[in-house]
């Protein structure tokens, strides 16, 4: 049975493993190689079983460990063409590693298949990933987006589990210490999803048949796990938690949490 391991999930570093001890894929490598390896091994996952690393975009909290990790394990890297070009130009991928564009459709890797879908974020290119596992389940990892487009909605709908961004509490962001321009960027259509926006999407997903959720990429300055959780539960008030749906909150790092779907 494949599971999702949200190893790191915050504005300071992101990486999730989907699979089991026999193999799987990694989405992003936004912490040091050592920290990533330690988190994998704490979950009894040997880094050598990773069959591919799928990059969502090139911000440092998603790729900072990629260069050393690929040099050590020579794992193939998958990303949108624009992001592969940026990563190559910045020396973020070891030259010995194979690279594959994800723009052309579904990617088969071992017994998994992965499909990228474009997201709106303040980068030249950005995407989420829909992953089909060997046991016929479907999971989505979707963070770092300012708005839920029709394309995003289509790929999230009907999944067995969705890891969705719940980045900021609107009041905390408005009254916080960030400069005005940064606040405006975060709240824009190319920024991040607020707790309220996330809650609205959770309601749509429930109606489309998705009942398992992980809230991810919480800002450590403009959000708290309690705020994000309360907002999601309130948005789903017509449903019963742990009966109609399952809700988890991804911790910032290496919590050892594995979620079956």
Structure description:
By secondary structure, the protein is of the alpha/beta class. 30% of the residues lie in helices and 26% in strands. The protein is built from 9 helices and 14 strands. Strand 5, helix 4 and strand 6 form a beta-alpha-beta unit. Helix 8 (195-208) crosses helix 9. The longest helix is centred in the last third of the chain and has 14 residues, at 195-208. The protein starts with a strand and ends with a strand. The model has no long low-confidence stretch (mean pLDDT 96).
Jot down its keywords.
single chain; 261 residues; alpha/beta; Metallo-beta-lactamase, Chain A; seven-stranded mixed sheet; 9 helices; 14 strands; globular
How is the secondary structure organized here?
Elements: E1 3-10, E2 13-20, E3 23-27, H1 33-42, E4 50-54, H2 60-63, H3 66-73, E5 77-79, H4 81-89, E6 99-101, E7 107-109, E8 112-118, E9 127-132, E10 138-142, H5 150-156, E11 161-165, H6 170-175, H7 180-187, H8 195-208, E12 212-216, H9 225-235, E13 246-249, E14 259-260
Parallel strand pairs: 3-4, 4-5, 5-6, 10-11, 11-12, 12-13
Antiparallel strand pairs: 1-2, 1-14, 2-3, 7-8, 8-9, 9-10
Helix pairs in contact: 8-9
Quick structural summary:
This protein has 261 residues and is α/β, with parallel strands linked by helices. 30% of the residues lie in helices and 26% in strands.
């Amino acid at each position: 049975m494949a599971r999702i391991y949200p190893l790191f999930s915050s504005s300071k570093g992101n990486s999730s493993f989907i699979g089991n001890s026999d193999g799987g894929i990694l989405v992003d490598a936004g912490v040091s190689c050592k920290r990533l390896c330690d988190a994998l091994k704490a979950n009894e996952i040997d880094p050598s079983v990773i069959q591919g690393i799928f990059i969502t975009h090139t911000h440092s909290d998603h790729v900072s460990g990629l260069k050393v990790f690929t040099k050590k394990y020579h794992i193939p890297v998958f990303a949108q063409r624009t992001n592969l070009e940026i990563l190559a130009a910045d020396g973020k991928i070891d030259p010995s590693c194979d690279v594959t564009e994800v723009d052309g459709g579904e990617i088969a890797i071992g017994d998994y298949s992965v499909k990228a879908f474009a997201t709106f974020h303040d980068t030249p290119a950005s995407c989420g990933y829909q992953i089909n596992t060997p046991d016929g389940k479907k999971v989505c990892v979707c963070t770092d987006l300012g708005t839920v487009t029709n394309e995003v909605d289509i790929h999230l709908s009907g999944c067995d589990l969705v890891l969705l961004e719940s980045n900021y509490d609107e009041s905390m962001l408005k009254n916080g210490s960030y400069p005005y321009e940064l606040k405006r960027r975060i709240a824009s259509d190319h920024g991040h999803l607020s707790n309220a926006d996330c809650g609205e999407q959770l309601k749509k997903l429930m109606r489309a048949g998705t009942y398992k959720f992980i809230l991810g990429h919480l800002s450590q300055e403009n959000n708290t796990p309690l705020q994000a959780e309360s907002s999601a539960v309130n948005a789903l008030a017509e449903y019963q938690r742990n009966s109609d749906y399952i809700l988890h909150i991804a911790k910032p790092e290496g919590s050892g949490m594995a979620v079956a779907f």
